[in-house]
Amino acid sequence: MITLEVNLHGSRYNDTQAIIEVKEQELKKQKRALDRLHESYEEDMITKQVFF
Fold first, then answer.
1. For the chain, what is the total number of helices (H) and then of strands (E)?
2. Which of 6, 21, 25, 49 has the fewest CB atoms inside 10 Å of its own CB, making it the most exposed?
3. CA 23/CA 26 separation, integer angstroms
4. End-to-end CA distance of the chain, in Å?
5. Up-side HSE of residue 37: CA atoms within 13 Å toward CB?
6. Measured between alpha carbons, how far is 34 from 27 in angstroms, rounded to an integer?
């Protein structure tokens, strides 16, 4: 019984770790996009309305 519980928790932990890794990659991608957008705004390549 204990082994089964450990296996289930281990599996959930691995699933959670995989989800966290995907979310961290998505966050990095969004941060890069926001940085590029901000740079474009600062260089007057886009308008304030587009930036917001």
1. 2, 0
2. 49
3. 5
4. 55
5. 12
6. 10
Q: Are 48 and 41 in contact (CB under 8 A)?
A: yes
Whole-angstrom distance, CA of residue 38 vs CA of residue 14: 36
* CA distances to 5, 26, 28 from 9, in Å: 6, 26, 28
- For residue 8, CA distances in Å to 5, 13, 14, 49 come to 5, 9, 10, 50
1-52: per-residue pLDDT in tens?
556 566 667 778 888 899 999 999 999 999 999 999 999 999 999 888 887 8
pTM of the prediction?
A: 0.65
